[in-house]
Amino acid sequence: MKTIKYLITALSIGTIINSCSSDLNTLPNGDISGEQLNDDQSKAEKILGGIYLDLRSNGAGGTTLHSDFGIMAIKAGADLMSNDVIQATNQHLGMFYNYDATNANNSAAEFVWTTFYARIFVINKLLDDIKNDNSASNRAIAGQLHALRAYSYFYLIRFYANDYKEHKQDPGLPLVLTTNNQSQGLARSTVSEVYQQITKDIEESIVLLGSYARSSRAQIDQRTAKAIASEIYLQTGDYAKASKYANESRQGIALMTENDYTSTGFSNINNPEVIWGFHNTTPTMSIGNHYASFFSMFDNTNRGYAGAAQIYKLIDKRLYDAIPGTDYRKKVFNGSQRADYTFNGTEKNYPPYVSWKFKDPTMFEGDYIYLRASSLYYTEAEALARQGREAEARQVLYEITSQRDKTYSLSSKSGNELVNEIILQKRIELWGEGYAWFDMKRLGTPLERIYPGTNHTFGRFNLAPDKFKFQIPNKEINNNPQIKQNES
């Protein structure tokens, strides 16, 4: 894994937790010495805080591109590969929209890979260094680390390998799990083996975080780990566990109001639905670049790339037309004609189907939301439907949809029609939040951007789901003789 190790050397491990800055000298390649941890028992927590910070920072994937800003960049890029999210012009994240990102020589293939493997290396080292200390604080740190490693491999496997269903023995990923094998060039474990490790990590996390009370939503607690687990089990087809964990994770969380949804709820970590996110501040944003941020790319009302440079993000015409006029989620998108829209006292004229969903009243310092409780309703409903528990599935779907559309009636659908209704509502609710393309890959849904009246732009083509796979970046292929490339 020489390439991964090289790229980690180029990355700085942040040391901010709870929005406070603190100095911590890391060894080359992000290693932490046992002596350091013994000298200051708070250092393990600071290193963990650095991992969280890095996952939202410009350069997380080892490049200087403004498209490289951690989890939110990767979620945004994935959605741009779906049927639902459109980019107006070929700049920055456009590499995802036109599928150039899947090529081994593309910078996106590199920074997606490195964003997660760089963190995995630090996670492994810290897990090794705290394994002999079973204190409550270290159990909580270990629980978060296991969840972060599961989350990292879960994203990687969905980008760089075939879908789990029907492809369990296909090449997956190199499973780097200890500091002993971080310097080695490892072959790819199978898709099944990678998912076995992912589920092992997330289950261990759930146990370790049982009594942990986090100090902010930037940290993973047991509720967050269960939410991540529910998505993992939906992917693998363990629908009993998917529905169980989704239900447990969403309990006690209020849904967003119409005002939350249509104003600035998506840039505020105090949104009642937020399960996991990151509170951005001027100091945290200064670590990266304000323009290299999610709101610069997706807030069409601002002075960033989306707004001022008019690299607009639009909703697919078919999806817009599928939203009932009585559903307030339709208010965050423009219709079929140009229209004026005022935000922060500034009125602008916008093109058809532009999004007003992600509005940040600051200068790109809006909070990042990784996980909302809304997503869990759809995970639970689909998992219940696939178990044949259709009455329960309809009720869960009704609980959230009736909040968005007061005229919505309890569904009478069954079988595939019920599942399709759940997926449609999920696409509407979570537009731009990083779910659509992964669901297309999981469900075998083709990319179809050529249709009568299409409003797709420079990425106007159709693709079969077998093309939804990234190649391993060239730097990794060139430096690891054990790894085999995906076919183009």
What does this structure look like?
The protein has 488 residues and is mostly helical. It folds into two domains: 277 residues, Serine Threonine Protein Phosphatase 5, Tetratricopeptide repeat; 109 residues, no CATH class. 44% of the residues lie in helices and 6% in strands. The chain has 19 helices and eight strands. The strands form four sheets. A two-stranded antiparallel ribbon has the order 1-3. A hairpin with a 2-residue loop joins β4 and β5. One of its GO terms (cellular component) is cell outer membrane. InterPro entries: SusD-like_N (IPR033985), SusD_RagB_dom (IPR012944), TPR-like_helical_dom_sf (IPR011990). Keywords: Cell outer membrane, Membrane, Signal.
Q: Summarize this, please?
A:
With 488 residues, the protein is mainly α. It contains 19 helices and eight strands.
Distance between the termini: 22 Å
Count of distinct strands:
8
Q: What is the CATH class name of the largest domain? A: Mainly Alpha
Shape category:
globular
Helix and strand composition category: mainly alpha
Whole-number radius of gyration?
21 Å
User: How can the largest sheet be summarized?
Assistant: 2 strands, antiparallel
Number of domains: 2
SSE order: HHHHEHHHHHHHEHHEHEEEHHHHEEH
Mean pLDDT, to the nearest integer, reads: 91
Q: What portion of residues belong to β-strands?
A: 5-15%
Report strand order across the widest sheet: 1-3
Based on the structure given, which CATH architecture of the largest domain is correct? Alpha Horseshoe
Main location: membrane
Pfam family, one: SusD_RagB
Organism: Elizabethkingia ursingii
Family: Belongs to the SusD family.
